[in-house]
Design brief:
2 copies of one chain form a homodimer.
Chain A (H helix, E strand, L loop, with lengths): L12 H21 L7 H18 L1 H8 L7 H27 L9 H14 L10 H14 L8
Chain A binds a DNA duplex through loops.
Chain lengths: 156, 156
Amino acid sequence: MQKGSVYSHIESKADLLWEVAREGAEAFHTALDSVPDEGPVVDRIRAALRAHLRVVAEQLDIATVFIREWRYLEGERRAQFVAERRRYEERFRALFREGRELGELRTDLDDGTAALVALSSANWAYTWLRLGAETDELADRFTALLLDGMRGYASR
Amino acid sequence: MQKGSVYSHIESKADLLWEVAREGAEAFHTALDSVPDEGPVVDRIRAALRAHLRVVAEQLDIATVFIREWRYLEGERRAQFVAERRRYEERFRALFREGRELGELRTDLDDGTAALVALSSANWAYTWLRLGAETDELADRFTALLLDGMRGYASR
DNA sequence: TTCGGGACCGAACGATCGTTAGGCTAATCC
DNA sequence: GGATTAGCCTAACGATCGTTCGGTCCCGAA
């Protein structure tokens, strides 16, 4: 396909970016929807990380736009996207907050930092993850480390 | 300064990228050198994260090249840079390995994953950290979460 | 004081990019 | 079967990019 041919499907390059950005938002939100809102929070965190990494690996192009390239959106669209992205991050944060409130996670947990670290790790993966990787297994390693930490019980 | 004027300082755009990439590697390695190789590993991990985030915040342009833009290096230079970058990551990993071997960190710690999560969080910061941010305090929050985890002692 | 050289400007080059327009082909509809 | 149309190609446009070149300005060495 030649570059000019793309314009029988889109109006402009900016429109295309916008469509892919929305597609990305939908993909990540939909993946997160598959996480039940009942049951042990620990399991749900693991499921959320699995869902996120699966989208990254299986829809790398779209994920790249959702994670990085959205910066080139302009005006109202950019504002709209940022709100949508914040909502996604908030869903992660809510998971950690709920875990703390239910007593499944430590009472002094900083849920903002937890969401930041979890999503940073998961987002950064778009720079190196390639299709066919064992994303579930990777998500589980992330989860184990984030839940129990590096220090372990011995030191307390 | 006009764009043409840059060429009295550099040979080509690729050369400039290469120089900045090397400058970035030096900045991060030098920052890491300030971390003592004695003393509690926990403190050294905190210091390493502080050092990294400080470089990101204070030399954002250079850090961006070290973290992301190096991908556009070509040929031998790219290979050389990748090796240098791997060495940097290895220094972090060594810290976690040492902590485990000295018994300061959990005996079943996966130091590879630990280094990946720590550096992912620290690297991702280049996308949102701005000059003037409280980087030390941020590094400390990362460290606290990574060391003790979200679950806490209550669950074991 | 002169003079050489480094730093920058201004204009231009070829290449690439986003976009448009016109035309060909093949499937789809009445 | 003929007309329509969706999907792609080709060629060209203006804009921008990386780069070159000749010229101007200014500083420091001789």
